[in-house]
Structure prediction request, 197 residues.
Amino acid sequence: MEKSRNYFRFGKFKINKNGFALVTVLVFAAAMLILATSVYYFIIQGTKFSGSVKRYSSLKEATEGGVTLGIEIVKNYNRNIESMFSGVSLEAVDTTKCGLSGNSLDSYIINADPEDIECTKYISTHPWFKFESGNYEVSVYIIKVFQGALSGVGGSTSFTATSNVGTYKYLFKIISQGKDKSSDSTIITEALYRLVI
Prediction:
């Protein structure tokens, strides 16, 4: 009888204990490397996300501060704004587009016609003041929406009826646009403010 020959000699390879241990260690090392890499990746991504949320929160706070400052400026329209708020100066907004002379905010607040479409378009694109807070630049637009004697009007811009029904009331839309100079992201916050004189 002829002996069968194994040309590939697979039958002669034997796995000893040292070889098995080496393969096991290499498999576990590869698994640990994959696990460590994925943990590192998720930590880095979490840090980036956390930084983005913090930058957004800071920009939102600066923009909301612009709305609050805009309300204070409308309340104190007839005072010297530069002396009241440090770091805030009024921009030179040409109010001649609104039929007024010069660039005075107090003249705009009292005398501008809110139904003048050209005036409203122009004022909507020119901020009354800007300020910087860290990496953020905030521009504030003050737009007159309504003026007149009002009493007890319902809806979202409700004016409660009081004893001073004959007084003049003004409604302003205050738009604060904050821009993050490092990431070039922008937030816009709006508010309505009623001024009674």
Observations:
- The radius of gyration is 34 Å.
- Residues 43 and 49 are 10 Å apart (CA to CA).
- Residues 153-166 have pLDDT under 50 and may be disordered.
- The chain has four helices and five strands.
